[in-house]
Design goal:
Largest sheet: 3 strands, antiparallel
Radius of gyration: 12 Å
Helix content: under 10%
Strand content: over 45%
Number of helices: 0
Oligomer: single chain
Strand order of the largest sheet: 2-1-8
Shape: flat
Distance between the termini: 10 Å
Number of strands: 8
Structural class: mainly beta
């Protein structure tokens, strides 16, 4: 199970799942055109991806 944690306040989020197939979303980093990276949560069955959760104004990090 993927756990996302806020580095500022230690808030944790677990069990982020796909609404179409109920599979757990997998954390990945993707590179933007400017060279920076963005954390995303992706369906392992190919139904898409979303930006990872945010807390305290920044991306939460998957453990």
């Amino acid at each position: 199970m993927t756990t996302y944690t806020c580095s500022d306040c230690s808030m944790e989020v677990t069990s982020v799942t796909c609404g179409k197939c109920d599979s757990e979303l997998e954390f990945k980093s993707i590179s933007k055109d400017d060279g920076s990276t963005v954390g995303v949560s992706e369906c392992t069955n190919g139904h898409g991806k979303i930006k990872s959760p945010m807390c305290c104004g920044h991306d939460m990090v998957a453990a």
